[in-house]
UniProtKB/TrEMBL annotation:
<dbReference type="Pfam" id="PF07318">
    <property type="entry name" value="DUF1464"/>
</dbReference>
<keyword id="KW-0418">Kinase</keyword>
<protein>
    <submittedName>
        <fullName>Butyrate kinase-like protein</fullName>
    </submittedName>
</protein>
<dbReference type="InterPro" id="IPR043129">
    <property type="entry name" value="ATPase_NBD"/>
</dbReference>
<dbReference type="InterPro" id="IPR009927">
    <property type="entry name" value="DUF1464"/>
</dbReference>
<keyword id="KW-0808">Transferase</keyword>
<dbReference type="GO" id="GO:0016301">
    <property type="term" value="F:kinase activity"/>
</dbReference>
């Protein structure tokens, strides 16, 4: 079965084509706004039977053709013009390939995550992180570890954000998203509420700022050794936070651009035994796996074990009323 997976990243985006887990083709896109037609053409040329969309905060599994504009807004929570490229892609997919394109839930929407862990959270791990977990389940199973025996923390450190997902018995039970966790290369992560109280405004594009890049004034492949140690410390803190939810984890799974560059240095510094997801783009490959499973293919067991079809609710659930009434947008 030929399927497609789409991952929208901070630095670039990937559209991947896979046949029952074997990568056939892929393209990287740097500016979504300028390449929407190219993406649609690429997908049509390969005629996938299902497309999984790892966009933002996700939704319970639905065909894009079933969704109205208000619901689509919840995928990205994007209202600022500079970052509307994702919205344009979603609208194009809904128009041209909506019957075979599926939304993927984010961590917060999964029934395997206890409700109390969702309090006042939106970003517990975006839907592309769920896709990366799907790939990790498959890779570890190929190593002889059954889903029910898989206990790990997935660390995805990219150009923009660092996310940490806790997996217990092969199910996602907790997550620390890029905007709710520790500083990363581009993003500040969670902000001190006293800093927030001093801000006169906080446009959505600011979630991509305030990280080490702003302080170091360098690119991700130019990080000096001392600053690398600072970043490693924050990654270790994220892992330790997730261990509270699963007990002492026996496996750390890593992926993302940061680890493509600094995996050996991280292992040397921390002494951790890590399993690196070797992939052109882990989340896009994981999305192909999920698309296959949603369409009844060989990876249906992955979709079932992660309980993706049981995802429900909204990313705005479990947010205190006193906070919601201060939202600047009517959502």
């Amino acid at each position: 079965m030929i399927t497609a997976g789409i991952d929208v990243g901070t630095k670039d985006s990937c559209v991947m084509i896979s046949e029952d887990g074997r990568i056939i083709d892929y393209i990287f896109i740097e500016d979504l706004k300028d390449e929407i037609n190219e993406i649609i053409r690429f997908l049509r040329d390969h005629s996938p039977q299902a497309i999984a969309c790892g966009f933002g905060y996700g939704l319970p599994v639905k065909r894009l053709s079933e969704l109205n504009d208000r619901v689509l807004t919840l995928l990205t929570l994007s209202f600022d013009r500079p970052i509307m490229g994702v919205r344009l892609l979603i609208e194009a997919l809904r128009k041209y390939l909506g019957e075979i394109s599926y939304t993927i839930p984010s961590v917060k929407l999964l029934p395997t995550v206890p409700a109390y862990r969702k309090l006042n959270k939106i970003d517990m791990g975006t839907s592309d992180k769920v896709c990366s977990v799907a790939l990790a389940l498959v890779r570890l199973k190929e190593m002889g570890i059954n889903f029910t025996d898989q206990n790990f923390v997935l660390v995805e450190a990219g150009y923009g954000f660092n996310s940490f997902i806790a997996v217990k018995d092969g199910k996602i039970v907790d997550g620390l998203g890029g905007t709710s966790g520790f500083p990363s290369f581009s993003s500040s992560g969670a902000l001190d509420l006293e800093v927030v109280a001093l801000l006169k405004d906080y446009p959505k594009e600011m979630v991509f700022r305030g990280g080490f890049k702003d302080f170091l004034k360098c690119e991700i492949d130019e990080i000096p050794d001392e600053a690398l140690r600072w970043m490693f410390e924050y990654i270790v803190k994220g892992i330790k936070v997730m261990e509270v939810s699963i007990g002492k984890c026996c496996q750390i799974v890593v992926s993302g651009r940061f680890f493509d560059l600094y995996y050996d240095e991280f292992v040397d510094y921390t002494g951790f035994k890590c399993f690196k997801l070797s992939s052109v783009k882990a989340s896009a490959e994981g999305a192909c796996i999920i698309a296959n499973g949603l369409n009844g293919g060989v990876f249906r067991d992955v979709v079932d074990h992660l309980e993706l079809l049981k995802a429900s609710g909204s990313i705005l659930d479990y947010i205190a009323h006193d906070l919601r009434k201060l939202f600047k947008y009517p959502i």
